């Protein structure tokens, strides 16, 4: 107790400096101290990796100071907090981001150079934390950065997977997956909280019991696992606020399964206990379909249950009445993955806190908000009733009860429209009975958000039309963003310096709207010179990477044309490759003189295919065989090169994006909910070649159609085009390139047959044939613009200048004001 130990506390304070110092000598002392005592190497002999570890620990010490101050401040102020529940966070590396947000990067760089080390070299020693698949997971990471920077009282909750997203290695052009056991080299950014643990229950039975004369449900579990907290402090920029990302790891529980120890088979019993850890062992590598997998469901409930217990514990520390719960708690569901939280909060309120159904339900309706990232009905999560009932018997009962009440209410409102009632029910009837997680989330949340304006429109008119008609007020959207701290300041330091110089301030790093000021200099010759220099520096960095990786030397005068994202049919990497084959074919058939007019290109493709996604894997192989052919054709030289970048992840993106001239976003309109890669390219002054899909539509409004290369069918035209089916005329150019693949021009014709079949005739669901001419025209327009350097540079400046709307700072501000109803809570310096 602090009161009793007040004397000692004062003495302790006197023994320590109030804050760690950031002058060069103090920093060097700190680093050496960590070399000697944390890393346990002699300070006279340590390598780059050990230096990185010591550096990371010195940074972490400073991070922890602010984190403590923030947590104490939040505790004192007791504001309403948002709890951000997400099964995936794609953090990438942390060091550079943290020192920049703490404002001590240059000090550390100086201190290190005096010790004979280079900050950038040490930063490269860090591995990526890949606890997520793609857009959804990186969005969570960017949003955490903005929550901290904008001083919002927020806590992120997720899972601490031992194996992150698989590492992609390419062998003979084929993707192979290798495990990413990322914790092998330690993780200085997390703090293990051995005392913050919660039991998580699974299986078992539910019985009726009487408590004080009232009937209540008691869940007797069949298995118990312990959730241990690992805290990851997330610093804001330009503020002392440092918030917490709490990730849960599964450990065997001491409370349960002691029986099996008494039966005598001690070794088997220990091995059984070890199995508990498998719950948090692996991230599912498929970003959209994991239906009916028990382990996946266990992961979902595991992290939800631990988080909910943590939230209740924090609330009950200072509050007695549950009616105050909605004034203090906002729960954000990042897609349906955490939506068991609804049933879990309901269960705790009913069975453990003994609130009436009416009071508990009232609380539920006030605290949950749901964001969906999905466009297609097939992408919506369903859980077989048998599976759920077996693993979480009490939750299934609660979901049934919620559904019963909902359907009764609905009947009163819409009458006995059975089709509609069937569609809206949480329970899907059929050969396999399923729980529709999206319906559960929509019914129980006060707000349903889409991730772009178009996405929201599709939700209201298609995916959730029945619900929109019933509750129009629930539906909002928050166009996604990315954080400029990571995607300009960390990844493109030269551009960052240039922007600050021309705007005369660094304030845009917190206030992104200031970027618009660059418009005033869009035709300034001096800026043009400097802007081109920055691009060149970044292209050199990328070219060196390509050479180191593949041995291929690429020309810096060529247009660097990039498409990096998960491989999906709807994202149409295939359209890109067909376009490249077409370009190759055209060059081959040109007279020597005409070749002089060709704009040289380095086409760069990168991305991972889900391990079980055959077609996506074939696309990767196709890219390699086409590259092999083109890159080894001496007749083509520097006019065209094709490179596949293996193992695309956050740190690779940080290098690729600043070096791109053009970036491609080719999803069939109506299929990309938002897209966030495009925002990163845009901020880095890269021109976009894109369909009018997801957030691209809003980008056109910000930077103008003249500054982008748009092509293809619009979302509302896609349905009609598909209906035309066999009567749709496909251009000859398209048939010709597909024929080249079929005829074995690149080899492996048998292997690619199914790929070709998928895009010809009526099976061309993603409309590659229909959009092909329009795509080639957009490519030609990009070539034309590129040769006019002045025009290109102006377009590039205007792209960056107009990218302000696509910062997560804006997204988070909108969530805070219109969805969560929370206020900033700034920690005094
Ligand atoms: C992605 C969406 O595909 C993408 O369009 C969006 O920008 C991103 O989420 C962030 O909102 N898994 N990943 C996504 O959706 C799902 C499901």
From TrEMBL:
Function statement: Allosteric enzyme that catalyzes the rate-limiting step in glycogen catabolism, the phosphorolytic cleavage of glycogen to produce glucose-1-phosphate, and plays a central role in maintaining cellular and organismal glucose homeostasis.
N6-(pyridoxal phosphate)lysine-modified residues are 680
What is this protein's name?
Alpha-1,4 glucan phosphorylase
Tell me which cofactor or cofactors this protein depends on: pyridoxal 5'-phosphate
An example of a Gene Ontology cellular component annotation for this protein is: cytoplasm
Question: Which NCBIfam families does the entry mention?
Answer: P_ylase
Q: Which GO terms describe its molecular function?
A: glycogen phosphorylase activity; pyridoxal phosphate binding
Residues in coiled coil: none
Q: Tell me the organism.
A: Gossypium darwinii (Darwin's cotton)
